[in-house]
TrEMBL record, chain A:
Keywords: Membrane, Transmembrane, Transmembrane helix. It comes from Acidithiobacillus marinus. The keyword Transmembrane applies. This is Cytochrome O ubiquinol oxidase. The keyword Transmembrane applies. The chain crosses the membrane at residues 21-42, 48-70, 82-103.
Automatic annotation (TrEMBL), chain B:
Belongs to the heme-copper respiratory oxidase family. Residues 668-679 have a biased composition (Basic and acidic residues). PROSITE patterns: COX1 (PS50855), COX1_CUB (PS00077). This is Cytochrome o ubiquinol oxidase subunit I. GO terms for cellular component: plasma membrane. Residues 668-687 are annotated as: Disordered. The lineage of its organism: Bacteria, Pseudomonadati, Pseudomonadota, Acidithiobacillia, Acidithiobacillales. Residues 50-579 form the Cytochrome oxidase subunit I profile domain. It comes from Acidithiobacillus marinus.
UniProtKB/TrEMBL annotation, chain C:
InterPro entries: Cyt_c/ubiquinol_Oxase_su3, Cyt_c_oxidase-like_su3, Cyt_c_oxidase_su3-like_sf, Cyt_c_oxidase_su3_a-hlx. It is a multi-pass membrane protein. The keyword Membrane applies. The keyword Transmembrane helix applies. Its main location: membrane. It holds the Pfam family COX3. This is Cytochrome O ubiquinol oxidase. Gene3D superfamilies: Cytochrome c oxidase, subunit III, four-helix bundle. The chain crosses the membrane at residues 34-54, 74-92, 104-125, 145-169, 190-211. GO terms for molecular function: cytochrome-c oxidase activity. One of its GO terms (biological process) is aerobic electron transport chain. Residues 32-210 form the Heme-copper oxidase subunit III family profile domain.
């Protein structure tokens, strides 16, 4: 099997690196994390709204990093990486979501909360 | 950080001491002597015939996917035998122990039967773990390893070295569980483990540690293998092999390996957390201190259920290759077959709770998982109907491979229907943890075993160049089926009669007749094992009469049948250009079967490497060191592993080039050897003694085809 | 199904062997396989998150401290920035590789290693601080899950740093061969993925733990 590219530095996956795109990913993710930290340390929102906001920040930061850093897009050289990721994301959601649902139902029936205890939920 | 152990520990040997070797056990001690003697005989034999160099050069350091596949299958068959012996011991114990009185053998220290409860617990734990992860998985991975690259026209897997690494890490797991027979104990709380019994406070011995590290090693090996398969199919298909031309077996391999890739990390985490509880004193699964026992069960089955489909999907693929070949028709409903495989793989991820419906999480959760479980029946039903329609109006040949596949369909039906019963929570609450469940999943796993035997008979001539004996394949089938019937149908009955699983002492005397029937069944199974050994012996003895050409069955369909039998190490002298989904059938029908490539090019092949087997050995040492808490050994082996990996990474593998002229010469020789081998047999090498045009017009009238097998060549 | 068989096949025009097949693309095959490994690593984190979700109820902390009592958001934010900057430096290093600039690649990688080291140092300092306060994984199931998630991530960072050290040596020794370039791209994905995972750990373990 001969090798398709004589000079590895000319390989498309080397050439797709881009300073501006990496910088954009860095700036967006950093700002979102900064916003989340300020909101949480200041406790400026009601707990549930705060939770939704920081979840949004995390989601957006992850998407920005996936797109700008990890080159997850539908171009010819990245399509298979994108397909693999798209297959995995529902499984991440299932693993965490169904487990959480199952046990929240279980706790509701078996673990009555002791009043006055410090807790998260 | 490290927990205080309940027993002695020394810095040099950890928990290891002479007293950990069970030399007083009347079963294990003689077994140990037999194994040592057999080992000495084997080593002496290899030395006498001077085969060490051959073994090292051709097998231990190989990166050839076919040889690695053969070693996987040998490993799987050995462990299948070990697991079978465990099953035999369990059946015998229950037969002897049944009843209310003291009927135990004092010499064995047993009150009931011949096994003490602790010993019995180790046997059923080892049986389950071995059968699923060290027998079924290596057998399937081995078959995929051999066939998938051939079906897509690749010269090897995408990462040949990683492939070898996967094998040797699996072998390390096998060695770890085998050594637990003679050094220390094995886990006694079931193959999937129960929290919190596996916590150090309740299982202070090393059994659970053996169990953790064996599972971790297999999980690692299988994950590496799954990456390899997926990359191979995505990146290495020969020109013309479009996605709609992939054979069904390759499709099922893809869906199965997606499952493996995504689910094995869950197992690794679940067991690593058990390890953290036992070694570091954390509280993930403890009964107090904020731990949660059911979290373990949840994480385990999060892997466990997808794993079940990881083992069944390749088996479906094998059936899908065997049935069309011996029906002389293309597979019915190819697209639905592929979609059904992926539907099963997808649904496998949302059903795991049905393993613990009785946890008590209420009706909403149960309903979701119950409905999802029932959904599995739809794609499975599609597959069963597709196989049936493939056979419908086909020209059926009941060769031994075919009857094993048909047998698999019957077991799938029984296992599937009882599975539908179990998916209903109301029924599940009644039969939970009874042997009804055990009988159900044995039907499913035996369906896999049937498919594996079918596939071994089917692809054996491709790999070794000669067929297995037909008559003995059929005798083995009927003995095996009689055993299956006699062991597992009484088990369904016993489940309804209320027998729970894992009873070392079944106290109810009314169960006794069924246990006796099961014991007879086990005896028939023993005969089928002997028939298998005889089958291998007879086939090797008569190999000269059973040599085959490229198209071993004369009615074969997919791409692997156009290259020589046995497959040369380079797979294809020239990478084929694929024109049709059933390329071999297409070439045969258009008269291209005898066409050889005329032009050759230089090819690039990977070098053999000893690094894989060295890392495999080191992972065994890591597992052993962790089990016995020999910290210096563990750390040393880990560091050496990393250094070896860095060394290998620095060295790289430039591979080597086979020039076009050399390739042309090798191709001529391979062809000559194959032709000479079966020159005295009817041309085509199959039953039908000629080129079969399966479904073009007038095929049925053609004089050269369709000769019934009995007329062209006597069996055996 | 049988349509291909109905058409007559012209034996002179049919192509049976691929004479000009170039073989697979070695670098792409390597990086695709590595990406699949990374995703299975993501599954490993997802399972740990699932465990953390189950073990972060009030009763999971038994009578011991909850994250609200020991998490310092701004301290961890500095960790976040160290990791993000390290990833950025590695990205710049890869951008230098486009032109084959050895010095650019090596400088970027050293910067990335230093920043990764800062992240790891801050993490170790944090763990030591907590242990000195008696907040250890043995205290409760909730703390076990907290430590598992954060320290598994730290272990990944440690592995990445060793890998960078090896790659520095290989670049100096061998230059940009096909193998080295493939490994550098794999390492880029590995390192960037740790930043993605850190986003979730930072928000869902540290920040959420702090606010509840």
């Amino acid at each position: 099997m001969s090798h398709g590219h004589s000079n590895p530095l000319q390989h498309p996956e080397v050439q797709m690196a881009s300073r501006s795109s990496y910088l954009a990913g860095f700036v967006i993710a950093s700002l979102l994390m900064l916003a989340a930290t300020i909101l949480v340390s200041g406790q400026v929102l009601a707990p549930f709204a705060l939770l939704l906001t920081i979840m949004g920040c995390a989601g957006l930061a992850a998407i920005a990093q996936m797109y700008f850093l990890l080159h997850i897009d539908i171009s010819e050289h990245n399509i298979w990486n994108t397909v693999a990721l798209v297959m995995f994301i529902p499984l991440f959601v299932i693993t965490i979501g169904l487990t959480w649902w199952m046990f929240s139902q279980l706790y509701m029936r078996t673990m009555p909360m002791i009043p006055g205890m410090p807790g998260m939920h | 950080m490290l927990v205080n152990l309940p027993g002695p520990w020394s810095p040099f040997l950890g928990r290891l001491a002479l007293s950990e070797i069970p030399y007083t056990n009347p079963i294990l001690a003689p077994l140990f002597v037999v194994i040592v003697l057999a080992g000495i005989a084997l080593v002496a034999g290899i030395t006498y015939y001077g085969k060490w160099g051959y073994l090292w050069k051709e097998w231990f350091t190989t990166v050839d996917h076919k040889k690695l596949g053969i070693m996987y299958i040998i490993l799987g068959l050995i462990m299948l035998f070990r697991g079978f012996i465990d099953g035999l011991m369990m059946r015998t114990q229950q037969t002897l122990a049944v009843g209310s009185g003291h009927n135990g053998m004092p010499v064995m220290g047993a009150i009931h039967g011949y096994l003490a409860p602790f010993h019995f617990g180790q046997i059923y734990s080892a049986h389950g773990l071995i059968m699923i992860l060290l027998a079924a998985t290596p057998l399937l991975v081995g078959l995929m390893n051999i066939i998938v690259p051939l079906q897509i026209g690749a010269r090897d897997m995408a990462y040949p070295y990683l492939n070898a690494l996967g094998l040797w890490i699996t072998a390390a797991a096998v060695f770890l569980i085998m050594i637990s027979l003679f050094v220390g104990d094995f886990s006694h709380n079931g193959w999937f483990g129960y929290a919190p019994i596996f916590e150090l406070a309740y299982s202070p011995g090393v059994g659970v540690d053996y169990w953790i590290w064996t599972l971790e090693l297999v999980a690692l090996g299988t994950t590496l293998g799954s990456i390899n398969f997926l990359a191979t199919v995505v990146k290495m298909r020969a020109p013309g092999v479009t996605w709609t031309r992939l054979p069904v077996f390759t499709w099922t391999a893809v869906s199965a390996n997606i499952i493996a890739l995504t689910s094995f990390p869950c197992l690794q985490v679940a067991l690593a957390l058990v390890g953290a509880d036992r070694y570091l004193g954390t509280h993930f699964f403890t009964a107090g201190f904020g731990g949660n026992l059911m979290l373990y069960t949840n994480l385990f089955w999060l892997w466990g259920h997808p794993e079940v489909y990881f083992v069944i999907l390749p088996a479906f693929g094998m059936i899908s290759e065997v049935i069309p070949t011996f029906s002389e028709k293309p597979i019915f409903g190819y697209i639905t077959m592929v979609l059904a495989s992926f539907a099963i793989a997808g649904v496998s991820w949302i059903v795991w709770l049905h393993h613990f419906f009785t946890m008590g999480m209420g009706p909403y959760v149960s309903t979701e998982f119950s409905v999802a479980t029932m959904l599995v029946g739809i794609p499975t039903g599609v597959k069963v109907f597709n196989w049936t329609f493939t056979m419908y109006r086909g020209r059926l040949t009941f060769s031994s491979a075919m009857i094993w596949s048909i047998g698999a369909l019957f077991l799938l039906l029984i296992g599937g229907l009882t599975g539908m019963m179990l998916s209903i929570p109301a029924i599940n609450y009644m039969v939970h943890n009874s042997v009804f469940v055990v009988a159900h999943f044995h039907m499913m796993l035996l369906c896999i075993v049937y498919a594996v035997f079918s596939a071994i008979i089917f692809w054996f001539p491709k790999v070794f160049g000669f067929k297995l004996n037909e008559a003995w394949g059929k005798i083995m089938f009927w003995l095996f089926s009689a055993g299956t019937f006699l062991v597992f149908f009484p088990m369904f009955m016993l489940g309804f009669m209320g027998e729970t699983r894992r009873l070392d002492w079944p106290f109810n005397l009314q169960w006794a007749p069924w246990f006796d029937v099961q014991e007879v069944g086990i005896a028939v199974y023993v005969l089928s094992v002997l028939a298998f050994l005889w089958l291998i012996y007879v086939s090797i003895r008569d190999r000269a009469e059973n040599r085959v050409g490229a198209d071993a069955w004369g009615t074969s369909r997919s791409l692997e049948w156009i290259t020589d039998s046995p497959v040369p190490f380079y797979n294809f002298a020239m990478v084929p250009h694929v024109n049709h989904r059933d390329e071999a059938a297409w070439r045969r029908e258009n008269g291209f079967s005898d066409k050889r490539p005329e032009k050759f090019v230089d090819i690039h092949m990977p070098n053999n490497t000893p690094v894989a087997i060295i890392i495999g050995a080191l992972t065994f040492v890591v597992g052993f060191g962790l089990t016995w808490r020999i910290w210096w050994l563990t750390v040393l082996a880990l560091v050496v592993t990393v250094l070896v990996m860095i060394y290998r990474s620095g060295k790289g593998d430039p591979g080597y080039i086979i020039s076009a002229e050399e390739m042309a010469k090798m191709d001529r020789e391979s062809r000559q050897k194959m032709d000479d081998g079966h020159a005295h047999l009817p041309k085509g090498g199959g039953y039908t003694g000629g080129t079969v045009t399966a479904y073009s017009a007038g095929a049925g009238d053609s004089g050269s085809s369709g000769t019934p097998p009995g007329n062209s060549r006597p069996l055996s | 199904m049988s349509s291909a068989h109905d058409k007559p096949v012209n034996p002179d025009q049919v192509v049976l062997w691929s004479d000009d097949y170039e073989g697979h693309d070695v670098i792409s095959t390597r990086t695709f396989g590595f990406w699949m490994y990374i995703l299975s690593d993501g599954m490993l984190f997802a399972t740990l998150f699932a465990a953390y979700g189950v073990l972060s109820y009030s009763h999971s902390y038994y009578t011991g401290p909850t994250p609200a009592q020991f998490v310092a958001p701004w301290y961890t934010f500095i960790q976040t920035m160290a990791l993000f900057l390290s990833v950025l430096a590695y990205g710049f290093s890869m951008a230098s590789m486009k032109t084959g600039s050895k010095a650019g690649v090596i400088n970027g990688m050293i910067a990335s290693m230093v920043l990764g080291g800062v992240f790891l140092g801050l993490n170790i300092h944090d763990v030591l601080r907590m242990i000195s306060m008696g907040i250890t994984p043995e205290v409760s199931g909730g703390l076990s899950a907290f430590y598992a998630l954060t320290q598994v991530h730290a272990a990944h960072i440690f592995v990445g740093l060793i890998w960078m050290l090896v790659m520095l040596y290989q670049i100096l020794k061998k230059g940009f061969t096909e193998d080295v370039v493939g490994r550098l791209i794999s390492l880029r994905m590995f390192w960037q993925f740790q930043a993605v995972m850190w986003v979730f750990i930072y928000v869902f373990v540290y920040l959420w733990g702090y606010m509840s």
